[in-house]
Amino acid sequence: MSVRHGLLALLERGPRYGYQLRAEFERTTGGTWPLNIGQVYTTLARLERDGLVRALPESDGGQRPYEITPAGRAELALWFASPIERGDRPRDELAIKLALALTTPGVDVRSVVQTQRTATMRTLQELTRLKGSDPGGREDLAWRLVLESMVFQAEAEVRWLDHCEASLARFAAKSTSPSPAAGEPDHGPQSTVPEPEESILDEPTETTRGTR
Amino acid sequence: MSVRHGLLALLERGPRYGYQLRAEFERTTGGTWPLNIGQVYTTLARLERDGLVRALPESDGGQRPYEITPAGRAELALWFASPIERGDRPRDELAIKLALALTTPGVDVRSVVQTQRTATMRTLQELTRLKGSDPGGREDLAWRLVLESMVFQAEAEVRWLDHCEASLARFAAKSTSPSPAAGEPDHGPQSTVPEPEESILDEPTETTRGTR
DNA sequence: CGACACATGTAACACGTTACATGATTTG
DNA sequence: CAAATCATGTAACGTGTTACATGTGTCG
C-alpha cells in the first residue's frame, strides 16, 4: 500500500496530475525508487473509485489533476497515525533462501552467505558514495533519511550474515561427523511426518540482545 | 520470486505434493511466514508450465506429487549461486512514509517516528520471546536464523528511527537559530538499542573480507 | 452422524512491472 | 522537420491474498 498512500500524501499538498506525482515522488526519495508511471494512473483510478481522490476538469495542456477528498484526508491521517506492522511486510527472500539452503542437498551454505555478503557490501559502498553531496535542505533531508534507511538495513544484513556464518561454524563443530544423510528419499504416500530429530542443548552465547 | 524458488528448493529434496510443500515450508521457517495454500497450487502450475517441475501420477489418496526437472535444478542452482540484489526488493514502506511525512502539511513527524518505534520495540520483544525454546537441531537452526534475521532488521529499524529523530532535532535547531551550533549533543532523547551509530564501513577490518 | 483435518483446485482482487499506443508541446 | 519530453492511458503478466467449492479420510 505504499504507493497508494504515497500519492495520497502528495495530493495533500495540493492538486496534482499523474506525471507530476511521479516526478515529485521520485524527487522526495532522491530517485532511489523509480515509480512506474502506469501504476500512477491505475492507482489514481482506484483511489477515485474508493472516493479518496476526485478528478478535476482537464486543463488546456491535457493534464488531468486530482484533488484529495475529506475521506482521503482521513485515510491519510490514519496511515500516519498507525505504525507499519511486521506482518504487513513481505517475506524476506534472503532469509527464506538461507533457511532452505540449510536443508537442501548439494548446497554450500557458506558460499551462499559469502556471495550475499559481498554483494551487500558492494551495495553499502555504493550507498555511502551516493551520500556524498548533501546539503541541509528539508527536501534533501527526506531523501538523505531514505538513503540512510537503506544503509541501516544493509548493515543489519551484513551483521546477520556474519552471525549466520558463526552459527554454521558452531553447528559444524558440534556435529563432528556430518552424517545425517541429507533428506530421506523415502516417504510413503500421505505421510506429512514431522520427522522428530535429535535435540542437542545449545549453550546460550551472545544471542541475548536488545530487548529493553 | 521467493515462493517460486522456495518450492523448487523443497522439491529438490524429493517429490512432494501441494499440502506437503506448504507444511514443510512453514516448518523450516518456524511458522513465522504462513504460506497460502492457494498460491502453492498456482505456483506449481506455473512451474510446470515453465518446465521446472513435472507432475507425477496421482496417488490413491488423491495426492498429486510433483518432481523437479533438470531445468528446475539448474534454475535453483542459479538462485543459490547469485546474490539477491537491492533493486529486486520492494520499496520500504516505512522510509516512504517518513520521507513524505516530512513535506506533508499538518503531520507531526516526531510522533510518527515515536509511534513506529514503540511498535517495532514491541515486535522486538515478541521476537526475543519466541526465541526462548531453542534446541540445536539442523532444522531448528534454520528457523532460528530466520527469527534472528527479523530481529536484526527490527533492531536496524529502531536505530534508524532514533537516527531520524536526531536528524530532525538537528534540523529544527538549525531552522530556529540560523547560527549553526557546532558541538551539539549527538544522540536523540533515548537510545535503548545499543550498537553502533557509526557505519561498519568505517571499520577497515570488516570490509576486507569476502571479496574473493 | 457430524466435525475436523487432509487435499486439490478456482475465482476474484490488489499491487507491481513492462510494454505499447496516442497525442501535445518543446527544442535543436 | 525531427526528436525528445510531457502526458495520458491500456493490456498483459507475475505475484500474493482471501474466499469459496469439492471431495476423502478419520475419529469421537
What is the CA-atom radius of gyration of chain A, in angstroms? Answer: 25 Å
DSSP strand content of chain A: under 5%
Indicate the mean pLDDT of chain A: 80
The tally of beta strands of chain A, per DSSP, is 2
- What is the H/E order of chain A? HHHEEHHHH
Q: What structural class results from the helix and strand content of chain A?
A: mainly alpha
| Sheet of most strands of chain A | 2 strands, antiparallel
Quick one: overall form of chain A? elongated
The spatial strand order of the largest sheet of chain A comes to 1-2
Helix count of chain A equals 7
Q: Name the pair of protein chains with the most residues at their interface, and give those residue counts.
A: A-B, 104 and 106 residues
Helix content of chain A: 55-70%
Oligomer: homodimer
The stretches of 5 or more residues of chain A where confidence is low (pLDDT under 50) are 178-212
Question: Whole-Å distance between the termini of chain A?
Answer: 31 Å
